[in-house]
Amino acid sequence: MTRQWGKREEIDLSDNQITAILQIAEASSKRDYLVIRFMCDCGLRLNEVLGRLNDDPRKKQTIPGIQVENVRWDKKTIWLRGKSSRNPYSGRQEQEVPIPQSLLLPFKDYLGNRDKGRAFDVSDRSIEDHLWKYAREAGLVDWRKVHPHRLRHYFITRVARLTKDPVAARDLARHRSLAVTNRYIAEYDIEQKSSIVERLSH
Question: How many CB atoms lie within 10 A of CB 54?
């Protein structure tokens, strides 16, 4: 399903499409596979995974990305600093983010004996290019619309539909308000709407 988001047409990814992309990524690059999973399984932004220097050279603020020493293996969480902002959910302070066990195990294997530093030494441009490649190989007609932030949209939509709790979706997305979270949640397609109407009919 595609829809307009601002001036750009976006694609809402399905479970089957994500599964196909992940299978191809895993066979190609363990690094790319893990980066993609952090976005679609934890809702991280790409710069929260990889890190990024501030666009303003006059400022020293950076987004460090996932640092190995900040992973809490026993708690299955990671401490990270989000995008620079004044709001309490995505501000400069560190936030504890849960990691599913199914992601934690291959991540630990990928890191090997490393115990500090950036987890992924790769550029955002490289990940974007590879994501396009995996989406194309997975057979997505609109593969050029599959950019990293769509994986975060996919995560937030899944949380909203699984929990049926808008507050949970807001908190896991680390947004300040439900209004922002709602912008990320994909609209049901016509088949899903029809199924709901059928279930409600007398």
Answer: 12
pTM: 0.81
Structure tokens at 38: 């952090």
Question: Do the beta carbons of residue 41 and residue 26 sit within 8 Å?
Answer: no
pLDDT 10s digits, 4-63: 444 346 788 999 999 999 999 999 999 999 999 999 999 999 999 998 755 555 555 578
Give CA 42 to chain center in angstroms: 6
Please tell me the distance from the alpha carbon of residue 115 to that of residue 166, in angstroms, as a whole number. 36
| Integer angstrom CA distances of residue 160 from 165, 173, 177 | 6, 10, 14
Which tokens belong to 100? 């599913």
CA atoms within 13 A on the CB side of 183: 9
pLDDT digits (tens, 9 = 90+) for 134-172: 999 999 999 999 999 999 999 998 888 888 888 888 888
b/e per residue 92-110 (b: at least 16 CB within 10 A): eeebebebeeebbeebeee
